[in-house]
User: Fold this.
Amino acid sequence: MNGQLEDIVIVGGGTAGWMTAAALSRLLPAGHRIRLVESDAISTIGVGEATIPSIRAFNHLLGLDENEFMRQTQATFKLGIEFRNWGGEGDNYIHGFGQIGRDQVLAKFYQYWLKLYQLGEADDLGAYSINTLAPRHGKFMRPPDDMPNSPLADIAYAFHFDAGLYAKFLRGVSEAQGVKRIEGRIVNTELRGGDGFIEAVVMENGEKIKGDLFIDCSGLSGLLIEKTLQTGFEDWSALLPADSAIAVPCVSDGSLAPYTRSTAHRSGWQWRIPLQHRTGNGHVFSSKFMSADEAQAILMANLEGEALAEPRLIRFTTGKRKKAWNRNCVAIGLAGGFMEPLESTSIHMVQTAIMRLIALFPDRSFRQADVDMFNAQSDDEYERIRDFLIMHYHVNRRTDSPFWTYCRDMAVPDSVRERIALYQGHGRIFRKGDELFADASWLQIMHGQGLRAQSYHPLVDQRSKDDIAAFVGAVHKTIAACVEAMPSHAEYVAAMCPAPKMAA
Ligand SMILES: Cc1cc2nc3c(=O)[nH]c(=O)nc-3n(C[C@H](O)[C@H](O)[C@H](O)COP(=O)(O)OP(=O)(O)OC[C@H]3O[C@@H](n4cnc5c(N)ncnc54)[C@H](O)[C@@H]3O)c2cc1C
Assistant:
């Protein structure tokens, strides 16, 4: 053996720490000792409630029963995100997960729709996906196994859940798999002579916890990756100017919308996330354009139920560490970087970082090629998601505030400009490598924000207009009939995974 790693120390017990602990303890072969250090005196970020469908694969990997997970975390189902007032005031569209219409061999469905839309003879895009039509009617069901050709089989879903309860649930899973939790505050770190690898973290009581591999899940402070190793941070605030959020839970009215709502305000946007026991809310804003007092007043004026706690201010800097993996330290979660929660991508990025670490799992030699590959893949993932978020802000027609004018006028990366130019011509969209967001997502955001293609793919003209109209119309009709037959989301949750009543 070329020195198998034995001691793995995870620093931090937020969502990232416990997701990492649960996955490593399930997947690594015997012979590894996994310890997680967290301090009850240092709170977790306490937000992070909306996810994207990839979370299902992660839960499956952990062997979790989905209904049980939902009961334990007060979860609801999520089909997508509704964007209100984003492109312009009064605008409304849903970015649904999953596909749009039925793609053809020659061209994607949306190209046929584009032709009709440009002729003024098609419904809005949202009518052609089960993931965007069902939320409009408050409907939800899991895709049935026995109807492979129905649009119902295309239903793609994620969850809203209580992040604190999710971490608690995964702590139970991890401890049952042998992870040892150490409570206490880390006050110092010791580095090895020569290569400067981390040798131990030092606790407040003087205890030293030695390790071969340290996973920094300490949150925004980046205790090991930044404070100790001074890895450096790439600041993207100029491209994504929101740097603050005020969060507050409120009473749920019980209707359980199967989607996250994002409502644009003058200098940011407000989230609404329905859980079983409460509704999560927050106002993400840029402190350069709005004071915290004003942001809080807007949030409180737009709650749909009585507030259940004092509003809490969170400051952040958008960007990422220059290296997510430095020496024998891998940063996962907020310690690695943060982009605002507009598309619920952070927990997904925790998950992909864990899977990347497993794919490139080191031995004691910590081969630089493995480390470099990890960092290259991480950078690529960050940049593609950053571009997707920028698109929401940059393509807007709002005239009510300097914030939206700034976003429209800001210099965006070439990668974003190229996408806009490609779409504006023939409505072309290309997914880059294995980036997270597929063309259906880019389409929904670009069209939803008001960007218009001048034409459509020339191959579409191989079919007559009547033929295309019949095809596109049939897709709409079938999806509408499916949605009609679906149960309401609230009924479905009550039947499948009702959570115990608890104080919010
Ligand atoms: C406003 C906002 C909204 C968000 N919304 C979403 C969302 O809807 N969807 C989504 O996917 N993500 C969202 N996120 C991101 C999500 O909250 C985080 O990605 C996720 O919770 C992971 O956080 P974490 O575990 O990295 O850090 P934290 O939750 O901050 O955990 C840090 C841990 O480190 C420990 N620690 C720190 N220092 C020490 C020390 N010195 N000694 C011992 N222990 C220490 C703490 O005790 C704690 O356990 C949001 C983030 C913000 C800021």
Summary: The longest strand covers residues 244-250. The pocket of flavin-adenine dinucleotide is lined by residues 12-17, 37-39, 42, 44-45, 47-51, 163, 185-186, 217-219, 221, 223, 245, 247, 282, 314, 316, 333-335, 341, 344, 346-347, 350 (CB under 6 Å).
